[in-house]
């Protein structure tokens, strides 16, 4: 690890001012990803600004039925919260499908959104990587392709976003609240991530020094019938090859509400809006589920080593919708 | 950059001056001589370094010591009362739940913390009823909840048995 300084500011605004003014500074929260990347010298901040004690660790019920989750809530605390388990089971399951209990006790909700890709070439400083070092090229495209993206990738980057939590948050239309050098703002999770076509080195639309302080889950009756399914190379403690977050409401045999997002297939949690449109108002049949999944995946661009993800995503969507129809 | 911190380790207050780069694992092992947490992967993937930090199990190799001034740390060495071993430690011996023993302190701390989490009703991804009041720790639940602790000798069958025995008693 390169030497760095550590600061513990007294409030959010001084933390934001410090990081905004120093390009070599970085926020520190749970540290599960950042400290790891610093050990490998993939990231080499000269100053860590600790924010874990500054952001809320509470989950508040909002008037209207939504929840406001402090960015400092740990992944395990969020997964275990009774309101999340009852009203947004997809989120609880997604959290529990990620990492291990030890890591989830450290990892925060805010930090989970900002995890860097687990693309092995990003994590290997001896390899070219446009995300780590802009302009050096992409070693992944002609390398080990199993974990790479099939949707939304660019010539310069085919990395996937590793979060499970963010996939559920995308399906639930969650909103991230931030404080930055130019004040407070709210960003839809579905608007948080940037396309790798315009500079893969920046994962999100957040400005330098902009800090996630909370996440808001809107009230969502359909979320009571929701689930997360993760397909991976071993039964536990592995990143997703493909994952599906879904919520479904069926009345008189037809889909009246649906939320669908995919993980492991793109640079961001992939909200499957095309599939949602194809499902809405139509009979909840296996044939329609399959057609909707295929419509979403029509834009997929696979490489030889990750082509399996396209039928895998299709089949996982179909089986998930079938399960939810039986429960609905 | 050196900073002074105080940790409460296995019930004893310890003050030390550390470089900001020092992980909790290195502070424990290299500076304080507390060697029960082991360095396996040093990347949060194997669980050999598991300790309880303010009551929750964590991988101490990914924790910066400087960010945890004043914290309470419990390692496997702090679980026993003198010669009176913790029930999980006794069960690991009775069930022959290890081979080389390198991952064992991490497994044991993890298991003790896991039993508490289950007591608090925390769910797992294999829990059939996500909202159940009471967690029933069958073998599948134990395996899932212990998946952050790897054992390269693959003593898993007996590790699960050792924990199952304590969970049932």
Automatic annotation (TrEMBL), chain A:
Keywords: Oxidoreductase. It comes from the Bacteria. One of its GO terms (molecular function) is oxidoreductase activity. Residues 1-222 form the FAD-binding PCMH-type domain. InterPro entries: CO_DH_flav_C, CO_DH_flav_C_dom_sf, Diverse_Substr_Oxidored, FAD-bd_PCMH, FAD-bd_PCMH-like_sf, FAD-bd_PCMH_sub1, FAD-bd_PCMH_sub2, Mopterin_DH_FAD-bd. PANTHER family: OXIDOREDUCTASE, XANTHINE DEHYDROGENASE SUBUNIT C-RELATED. This is Xanthine dehydrogenase family protein subunit M. It comes from Nonomuraea terrae.
UniProtKB/TrEMBL annotation, chain B:
Residues 3-79 form the 2Fe-2S ferredoxin-type domain. It comes from the Bacteria. Pfam families: Fer2, Fer2_2. Pathway: Alkaloid degradation; nicotine degradation. GO terms for molecular function: 2 iron, 2 sulfur cluster binding; metal ion binding; oxidoreductase activity, acting on the aldehyde or oxo group of donors. Keywords: 2Fe-2S, Iron, Iron-sulfur, Metal-binding, Oxidoreductase. The keyword Iron-sulfur applies. Transmembrane segments: none annotated. This is 2Fe-2S iron-sulfur cluster binding domain-containing protein. It comes from Nonomuraea terrae.
